[in-house]
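User: Hello, can you help with two protein structures?

Assistant: Certainly.
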Amino acid sequence: AEMIGLIHTAVERGVTFFDTAEVYGPFTNEELVGEALAPFRGEVVIATKFGFQLDPETGKHVGLDSRPEHIKAVADASLQRLKIDVIDLF
């Protein structure tokens, strides 16, 4: 709740660009950003990144993976975590 309040305050003070990635958390930052920015979706730009290979059990960053099929899977998962239809900058 504290971080959502902080993000809301940032938007109210004029911040319009938010950058996240699946690797932050991992995964939890995208969920937080998506929840916090839902009321402001038309007012902000959301960026997220791909290319990380994460251990499926620990979520730990273990390498890089920018194969097309991985990029699509990451995009789909990020859209779900962010609760948005479009990633503004990927």
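That covers the first. Now for the second protein you mentioned:
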Amino acid sequence: MPGKKIQIVIVAIVALVAYLNILPNQFVIDDKMFIHDWAGIRSINLVADLKGEVPDIHKGVYRPVRTLLQQVYYQLFKENPVGWHMHSILVHLSSSLLVYLVIKEIATRFKLRYKNLPFFVSLLFALHPIHTEAITYLSASLEMVGVPFMLAALYFYLRKPKFGKIFFVLFYSLAIFSYELTLVLPLIMLGIEYFAGEFQIRSLKKLAFWYVSLVLIISTYLVTRVGFLGITSRGNYLAYSFYHTQLVMFQVYVKYIFLLLFPFKISYIHELTPGFESFSTYYSNLNSILDLSIFDFRVVGSLAFLLSLAGFGFTIRKKIPVLAFSIYFFFVSLLPVSYVISQGIAMSEKYLYLASLGFILALVYLILRIRRQKLVAIIFILLAVVYGTLTIMRNFDWKDEITFWRKLTIEHQKSSLSFYMLGVHLAESGSFNEAKTVYLKAIELEPRMVEARFNLGNIYLKESRQAEALEQYSIILKLDPNFEAAREKVKELIKSPSI
């Protein structure tokens, strides 16, 4: 195997090559809202950033460092997607290299004899396709900037070089004010101490600075966010029920593990229960959530699997501590998005960006335990080729809004939201005939979707099909009497001599 420096260069090249094809991609989903529509991005305003100002639809999050980065990038790149995607690649490149450094320190702590463990972990981290949403999707990559900051803080904690304490405080402060997922760092640090067998009461004095610093940084963040600004949570529990939300989350955790093992059907949308997708909308089937019971087969099966995995980790904590730590790391990294506090999105692949490190560490460790070196080499080559191919292919799905939503209509043929959004972007591009087709499909799947009916009615007006337009507007007012735009359209059409 190549030396450390060559390994680092290989990881860097692989991370770059895997994501170079995102540079021509356009803005998708929330990108346009942040970069084109939101006036707050057009100038650097530190006071507004510290107050947590974001577009209205994103109220409930507090990420001032992310907002500052957006404002700086806007001064540099304006609305040129290439510059923004360079940020995405840089985030993943820095994360992959920091994974190498962190795993090297962890391997030392756990006294592992596999000297190539950091290389293979960072290589598979750089290539795993589950990371595409976190990196290829620009708005998500701006959140993920907190991950390399957190990994840098963890590295300085483990390495403890000269001036390490200063860098630890600096990088963790940047991390937590970038992305709340990094709140888990204290638990990760404690997990390393515990599973490596180095956590002792008498050692607390030596570690006092590090943990007191964490308490102060996290307290500052929470007091600022909750105490001064009153920013608590975003969204509601699924079907407005904490209990039923947790029944869903048991299944979500299992889906996450399945996607990490078999990343062949990764998607922006996941159906949690029939008619209820990753995030709640006005048209979500609440009854499919409320009908769930702790005794349902899928719920019981998911809970049993998760408890078995946690129990297995506890059982092997002394015999195979690094494997137990990997399991612990996976679950701990997902705590901020476990929906104990309502958050708006129940399942998102971007949430696995940090948690995947636990899975990859376990996978690499188990492969390296195989005694036949040629077989080990073949397995890693196959994994690298498969992961890299899937990542590059998935990046093309994010090319532009039409490509993105068209792919989702193929993957989720019962998703009215996907068909509606495809219709919106087809109409914006002037493809009105196809837009009509997908709007009609959205209405077929969800007859209550007044937005699709309104847009369809507008297309009918462009085609001088006033009677059909009036029919859609009239149905809208029956479904939603407060839809004023439809009411105005009806008034105009009734006065029209062609009706």
